[in-house]
Write a structure and sequence with these properties.
Largest sheet: 8 strands, mixed
Radius of gyration: 52 Å
Helix content: 10-25%
Number of domains: 5
Shape: elongated
CATH architecture of the largest domain: Alpha-Beta Complex
């Protein structure tokens, strides 16, 4: 018993150390370790590989970017009645299926820490669908406007209370006005006049700050719809796949903003919309236990309810009065008339020489007053942006008019190009610039004030056509003309040798662009296959036929006015055997009177014919004999082979004379032999 008790105590200590290492050590929190821990603890949720676990720890860290509010005790809170338990509430509520779907699709914040923007934007989308009674509508509002224009934070983090104030005062336009970039962006990249077509709320209040209750959140969900809230994210949460989450293991990763969309008393959990895409959790959603309101997760702290929607604002903005100013400057005004008295607006100048004196912002009807500084230079134009609308303001020149002259006014260049300069004469303080209107080949870098010089460069003309370009210097035009490139041709190679077998070949033509050329052949044994004509650089392909003659040959092809020479060797010398006659018939021959006949062997080829052997074969070969063997027969010569039929018995006899030579095409040459043996002298006693 003592040993067993000691073993159980040791096992408990090991298990405690295991759990402690998982709970507080980020580096040791592997997926398999977490799954094992969930199993032995009987957790109601499952961990698995998802879009978050496939990221590096640094990338996961970017997904949590909430800056938690600082508790002051003066936060706007819902009335205490809404916090009290309401027994009439149903056992479960899900705004995805509560008389329709009032939850817009899952979005993905990517690698920008702007969960605060996605949670508040999602709350505004649901609030608008409920107010307009338009369930199932994919209202997609611009989180990027919230990040770039809202002043509530950035990709490094932000606060939901400041974001909610922006939604109340200014609102958000649709996504297409400024599509999400996953960066801090710039408000100037948003669509023009976006403030005049935004979705807003009439007000917002906290359901809870630091001591949320299950009943309070449930009541607010029932009365106001989806709620913006916050939570602490621990390492195990990144691996969430399904089920009712509660904190099990891992170190703190950061703080996060999400949208509560429902609850379930049976499973004792809230249903929540996240902004990590559909590849995480339950297609982007998750369930979290009621108990996490009091765990280190702190779920439900700083929960916000959006109350009512504000009407869309439109603005009538007058033109500046006046819109044009003398060089001495002055002041003007713009009148703003919104569609309702609660519509906010701002006014900014887009130039330092125009300043907003009063009316830089306002709500309802208002007046913007601005001043224009005196102008000592050339005439100028700028804009005011008032209530999202762009208004122009111009001012006359206050300087003595500038006059300009150039010398020379035009110049010509050969095809090779070159550099040059133009003298500019102008009054003191008169600015000028030089700008090429043919930048592909005519470049300039010149600017100055008063008298000076503009330099330019003319690139080589690679075409045969001449060209003209201009440079604008101040208000003058400087003209440059350039000759085209003369047509010159070269071919490579200029000749080619072939063996008697022939074959394909090609010739490369080098010529300036625009220079045309042709290729032709009058040779019957060398034919141009392709590239008969071209312009600029090109290639001519040809084929040389086999030379079956004993003589070499040479011929020319004309390519781009150049002569391309082809030489080809003669066919190799070869013998060709011929025999006459092709058969020998000796007729009737007595057994005591042999008869001889001859076979002429001729060489019809171009090489020596070597007779290797001559033989007689067949059943009656012994009754025939051959004499006068040939050895070497020169081309055009012949030799004689004598065959004698000397029958030893009567009857028809036959055999074959075979002549073996170095003519591989006819080897051997076979000559049939025939004769009839007689027992008496047919022609005498």
């Amino acid at each position: 018993m003592g040993k067993k008790k000691f073993f159980l105590i040791g096992l408990a200590i090991i298990s405690f150390c295991w759990f402690q290492s998982l709970a507080f050590g980020q580096e040791s929190l592997g997926l398999s370790d977490l799954q094992y821990t969930l199993k032995i603890r009987g957790a109601r949720w499952e961990a698995g590989e998802n879009s978050m676990t496939r990221l590096s720890p640094e990338e996961r860290q970017k997904r949590v970017g909430l800056v938690r509010p600082v508790h002051t005790g003066t936060e706007p809170m819902l009335s205490s009645e809404t916090q009290a338990p309401v027994v009439e509430l149903p056992a479960s509520l899900d705004w995805r299926n509560n008389g329709g779907n009032y939850v817009t699709p899952i979005r993905n914040q990517g690698g920008c820490g702007d969960c605060w923007a996605f949670a508040t934007t999602a709350g505004l989308e649901s609030n608008t669908l409920m107010a307009n009674h338009t369930p199932g509508t994919n209202l997609d509002l611009s989180e990027q406007v919230m990040v770039s224009c809202g002043g509530a934070g950035s990709c490094s983090g932000g606060s939901i209370d400041t974001a909610s104030n922006f939604i109340k005062s200014t609102g958000l336009p649709v996504e297409s006005c400024y599509p999400y970039t996953g960066t801090n962006g710039a408000c100037s990249n948003a669509c023009a006049n976006w403030q005049s077509s935004t979705y807003r709320i009439s007000s917002w209040q906290y359901v809870a700050t630091t001591q949320p209750t299950v009943d309070g959140i449930k009541n607010a969900l029932s009365n106001y719809g989806p709620l913006v809230t916050t939570m602490a994210v621990y390492q195990d949460f990144f691996s969430y796949q399904s089920g009712v989450y509660h904190y099990v293991a891992g170190s703190l990763a950061g703080y996060h903003a999400v949208l509560i969309i429902g609850y379930d008393d049976v499973d004792q959990c809230f249903v929540v919309k996240n902004s990590w895409g559909t590849g995480w959790g339950e297609s982007g959603f998750f369930q979290i236990a009621y108990s996490e309101l009091t765990s280190p997760v702190g779920f439900g702290d700083w929960t916000i309810a959006y109350v009512g929607t504000a009407p869309s604002c439109s603005y009538s903005v007058s033109q500046p009065s006046p819109a044009s100013f003398a060089a001495s400057g002055g002041s003007g005004s713009v009148y703003v008339t919104p569609s309702t008295s609660t519509c906010p607006w701002t006014a900014v100048s887009n130039a330092t020489w125009v300043k907003i004196i009063s009316g830089a912002s306002g709500t309802g009807n208002g007046t913007v007053t601005f001043s224009v500084n005196p102008n000592t230079g050339t005439s100028r134009t700028t804009t005011l942006t008032v209530a999202g609308q762009t208004l122009s303001v111009t001012q006359a020149s206050g300087a003595t008019p500038c006059t300009y002259s150039i010398n020379p006014a035009q110049v010509g260049f050969i095809a090779a190009g070159g550099n040059g300069s133009v003298g500019v004469t102008a009054g003191s303080g008169c600015p000028w610039t030089a700008k090429s209107n043919a930048t592909s080949w005519l470049t300039t870098s010149g600017s100055g004030s008063g008298t000076g010089t503009a330099v330019y460069s003319v690139a080589a003309n690679g075409n045969t056509s001449p060209r003209t370009g201009t440079i604008t210097i101040a208000d003058k035009t400087f003209t440059v003309t350039q000759d085209g490139l003369p047509c010159t041709y070269s071919i490579s190679p200029s000749s080619q040798s072939f063996t008697a077998t022939g074959g394909p070949g090609f010739v490369t033509v080098t010529a300036p662009n625009g220079c045309t050329w042709t290729a032709s052949s009058i040779l019957g044994w060398a034919v141009v296959n392709s590239g008969n004509s071209g312009s600029g650089n090109g290639q001519v392909n040809y084929t040389v036929s086999a030379n079956s003659t004993a003589s070499p040959r040479t011929g020319n092809i004309s390519v781009a006015g150049k002569t391309f020479t082809i030489t080809q060797t003669a066919a190799a010398a070869a013998p060709s055997i011929s025999v006459s006659p092709t058969s020998l018939n000796f007729g009737y021959v007595s057994i005591n009177g042999p008869v001889a006949k001859t076979v002429i062997v001729s060489n019809k080829g171009t090489g020596d014919l070597t007779i290797k052997s001559v033989s007689i074969s067949g059943t009656y070969a012994q009754q025939f004999r051959q004499t006068g063997n040939c050895t070497t027969v020169a081309p055009g010569s012949s030799c004689t082979i004598t065959v004698t039929f000397a029958p030893t018995t009567t009857g028809t006899k036959s055999a074959t004379l075979s002549v073996y030579s170095n003519d591989s095409a006819k080897n051997p040459v076979s000559i049939p032999l025939y004769g009839i043996g007689l027992g008496y002298n047919r022609y005498g006693p």
